[in-house]
Amino acid sequence: MSGCMHACILVSNEVYVDKSYPYLDGPFGTDWFFVTETGDKSPLHSIVFYPEQPGDYAMYFFIPGAGGYVEAELYTEYLSRVASHGFIVIGTDLIFPAATPPLSPTQAAEYAVKSNQSDKFVSQYRWMETNLQTKLAQKSPGVGIWWNYTALGSHSSGGDVARLLLESNHTFAQSAIFLEPVGITFSQPINFSVPSLMYGAELSEEHRPRTPPCVIPGFGYQKFYKLWTPTKVMIESKGYGHCDILDQAGWEVCSTLKICVTGNNTDLKLYHDFMQGMTSAFLVSTMLGYNDSIAYVIDEEQGTNNLSAR
Asked: Cα(first)–Cα(last) distance of the chain, in Å?
């Protein structure tokens, strides 16, 4: 199945649009740098990934798990590989370095949502709008950012923060990615439209003795999908868990400490191929207007059924 479902967004030919197979690394090598509160006087700490090839690229702004308390640096493989498909990618930390918090992961996520930390992420984005191009030009001359084409991404209860951000700023993003979202305070249908993908991993709702599930049943991706307005896509994978998107070091901590139920680490390369490919294909279609790319997300014959996605 191909096409744009409900709506298409067309962009200038000056913005790079990736037409390669999304479930492999994109055509560009990537590099990265930090934006820091101390060195750059930014509101928050961020890690920025960018294609090394000169050109103009769309933006992917990512809020990590636990409402932003999980360091974005633990998603380096995922974020850098999305960047390889022709995106400037910003992962932003609510606190850096992420010292052991006095709150549990669940309590930290609840605090981030109930205290509406989304405003801090908006402040960081606005700072980036003013300052990032200058910093990027020093690192890689010729690489440009098209801010009019911004996508918002999130993982876990970072999704609730992303949802709050969009409710307060309807035009912030042209597309959104909710990876295993947790909607602690999400109860009413939204009244605006942003093309969005809701993704869930089967093992995220499982738990071990004395350990609650990382995604509470009834508060995850299915809830987001139900309360969202079209255009929207829902996908679930079988046999993978909440921490499987993380880099190896983060995955090992999560698995060893039994924070979440995890999948088989021998399959993580395949899983990471899937996650970055699903993300880039959805954004290329819904934000950048290359309609054929949506087939890689919703057509099982195009490869997503490698993970029994639906």
From this structure: 13
> What pLDDT, in 10s, does the model give residues 11-50?
445 899 999 999 999 999 999 999 999 999 999 999 999 9
Looking at CATH, the fold of the domain delimited by 30-282 is given as Rossmann fold (3.40.50)
Q: What is the DSSP code string of 254-296?
A: HHHTTSS----GGGHHHHHHHHHHHHHHHHHHHTT--GGGGHH
* Cα–Cα distance, 59 to 21 (Å, whole number): 20
Please give the biggest Cα pair distance in the chain: 54
What gap in Å lies between CA 15 and CA 37, rounded to an integer?
Answer: 30
CB 28 within 8 A of CB 84: yes
3-state secondary structure at position 200: strand
Which residue's entry shows tokens 């498909």? 85
**φ and ψ at residue 266, rounded to 5 degrees:** -70, -15
- Report the 10 Å Cβ neighbour count for 266: 7
Reading the block at residue 41, the tokens are: 């006087």
On whether the CB atoms of residues 124 and 43 are closer than 8 A, the answer is yes
Judge if pTM exceeds 0.85.
yes
**What is the chain's Cα-based Rg?**
18
Look at the block and give the residue holding tokens 């680490």: 265
Angle between helices 118-139 and 158-168 (to 10 degrees): 90
**What are the tokens at 97?**
């370095």
Residue 52, SS3 per DSSP: coil
Read off the pLDDT of residues 118-146 as tens digits, 9 standing for 90 and up: 999 999 999 999 999 999 999 999 999 99
How far is it, in rounded angstroms, from Cα 43 to Cα 80? 23
Strands 175-179 and 196-201: parallel
**Domain map (residue ranges) of the chain:** 30-282
d(CA 194, CA 192): 7
**Residues 6+ away with beta carbon under 8 Å from 193:** 229, 230, 231
Rounded Cα–Cα distance for residues 128 and 87 (Å): 15
> What residues form DSSP beta bridges with 105?
none
